Automatic annotation (TrEMBL):
Name of the protein described by the UniProt record: ECF family RNA polymerase sigma factor
Superkingdom in the source lineage: Bacteria
GO BP term (any one): DNA-templated transcription initiation
InterPro entries from the UniProt entry: RNA_pol_sigma-70-like, RNA_pol_sigma-70_dom, RNA_pol_sigma70_r2, RNA_pol_sigma70_r4_t2, RNA_pol_sigma_r2, RNA_pol_sigma_r3/r4-like, WH-like_DNA-bd_sf
Keywords: DNA-binding, Sigma factor, Transcription, Transcription regulation
RNA polymerase sigma factor 70 region 4 type domain ranges (all copies): 139-190
Family: Belongs to the sigma-70 factor family. ECF subfamily.
PANTHER family, alphabetized: RNA POLYMERASE ECF-TYPE SIGMA FACTO (PTHR43133), RNA POLYMERASE SIGMA FACTOR HI_1459-RELATED (PTHR43133:SF8)
Amino acid sequence: MIPATTPRSPQAPDGLPAASLVTASFDDTAALRSVVRAAIACVLGERADHPDVEDCTHEALARALEGRSRLRDGEPLRPWVLGIARHVALDVLRRRRRTRRAEAPPAEDPEERGELLESVEDPAPGPEERAAQTERARRIDIALQKLPEPQRRALLAFHVEGLNYQQISRRLDIPLGTVATWIARGRRCLAEALGE
């Protein structure tokens, strides 16, 4: 029997893996808040009790509540809310970066200023990298569509929704070993289709 594993995920403040809180709903705000706080703390690289983390958590939950009408019936809540949380946290990181740049003392000499700008690497992916990422995502989508439905459902539940093998087993009403087999075969087929 292959042991159930969970994908690496941020730890909730109470020490439980955030993946164990996949059943969080708008009715269970404490669980939802802890999932969002853990994700934001991970993106910001701060402790869960940092003021920016709390501000981002509040903002992400407010946006989720405002936009919950856009969530389709049956669509999992956790990935949707975590996407919102990630975007809120990235906005904070961008603001921090702009603030640091604005506070940096200007170089004395215009030539020095040019050298300084040349030495700073742009962290954003360049056009070639973005094009490669887009092409890879398209190839993954095509390869996923070619997988048998059970393998695709198990693979997406594990990698996208963050469910562990036991949760997938219960959801699909299949033995744990079958889940492991479907995920392994799905990964192998994807790797072959992508030439990896």
